[in-house]
Amino acid sequence: MGLGRVLERTTRWVLQNIDKELSPATIVGENLQGLATLRDSFGDVVAGEERALFAARVSEIREVGADESFSERLMTLRFLDQMLDILEIARETGADVLDTARAYYRISEEFDLPWLHRNSFAAASEDQWEQRAARVLSEDLARAHRRIVVAVLTQER
Fold this sequence. Notes:
The chain is an all-alpha fold. It is built from eight helices and no strands.
């Protein structure tokens, strides 16, 4: 699952997107219900390459004896930074959380964002500056993705 990478991406997302004045209790309170909603419906809203990744990882966990429900719930952790982004967009636009998630993944697939993120890092060498440039490019892609989702949801209202 790459828990270290999940924690790194999620920490980076929190540092870039959450008001530093908010207490951890407030942050958890704002997101707990939405995360539960996304976790419980994730298999229905994730799409494209990310859906294939989700399904493959769920299968891997099931092969070692875990039941399907547990496997699916556990694998949603891999997408925690995306789920937090979806919740922030839903709050910003006033859209339903699941509608926001569907738009988020539909747009991700339309623009082939998983491929762009993956290849921005693959093109960078081991040089720290190239890695930093790849991370900045990936963050720029994430911001553009977010703006497009907000625009789509705003137009649909």
